[in-house]
Specification:
This protein has 313 residues and is an all-alpha fold. The protein has a domain of 190 residues. The chain is 77% helix and 1% strand.
Amino acid sequence: MKIKGLTPILLILLVILFVTGHGYFLEGPLTNFMHMSENWIGGANAVGWSIIILTFVVRLVLLPFMVHQQRAATIQQEKMRLLQPQMTKIQEAQKNAQTQEEKMLASQAMMAVYRENGVSLLGGMNFTVLIIQWPVFMGLYAAIKNSHDLVNASFFGIKLATQSPVLAIATAVVYGLQAYLSMVGVPAEQKKQMQSMMMIMPIMMLFMTWVTNGGIALYFFVGALVMIIQTLIIIVWRPRLRQHVADTFEVKDVVDDALSGKLQSEPTGPFAQAMKAAQAQQDAQARKDITDDASENTHPESKGGRNAGKQKR
C-alpha cells in the first residue's frame, strides 16, 4: 500500500507539530493507556506488556505499508538481478577506464541503466512508516519519563524509564538478524552491494535505543521481531515474486549507449528541472560573455571610436 504524495504531507505535518510544540501530543493518551493496562493485566510487568500491546497495534495499522515496502524492495532486488550482466560490463569499464571522461561515463552508466529500466536505488523504501511512528516514539518516551506512576515501572527487572544497554544490544542483534534474513535468496554479487547498506540499520538502532529509555528500546525490540515475521513471509513469497518479475519486467540493454554517453539524463522532479533551467541560463550567460569578449577583441577600433567620440563632446 502506497498513497502517492502521502509522505511529504506527513512530513510537513510532523514539522508543524515540532515547530508549534505539539510533538508530544500522544503523551496523555499513551499514559492513560498504560495505566489502564496496569489495571487490566496487573503485576510488576504490566507496563512492559502494555508497550508490547501498543507495538503490535501500531504495527497492525502500518502492516499494509510495511508489506508493500518489503514486497517492493524484493521486486527491485529481482530486477537488479536481471540487470547484473550490464552491471558487470560497467564494472569492467570502470577498471579499464584510462581518461577522466571514460571514468565519468562509467560512473554515470550504472545510474543510466537503472533509470532506463525503471529501477530505484532506494529499493522500494517507504518513509511513511517511519514518519507515522515518530509521534508514537515521542509520546511513549514522555509518558514514561514524566508520569510519577510509570517512572519506576520495570519489565522483568529492566527499568523502562532509564537507559537499558541490554535491550539496546538485543534490538541491534534482532535488526541484524532481520537484515541477514532479507538477503536470503539474493544472488551473491548483489549481496556484496547490499551488505554495507543492510548493516546501517542495526548500528543506527543500537545508537537510538542506547541513548533513550528502556520503554522505547522495548518498543523497537518487539517491532524488530514483527519485522522478522514479515521478512520470513517475503522469503516464502520470493519464488512467486521472482516469477512475476521474470514475466513482466522487460530488460532494456542500454549499457553500450550508457558507456558511450549517448543516454542523456532528463530531470523528472521539480527540483531537478529547476537545477537544469538554472544551469542552462548560466551556460547561456557564459556563451554571451564569450561572444561579447570576442566581438570586442575583433573590433577594438569601434570601442576606441566610441570613447573618442565621448571625449570630443
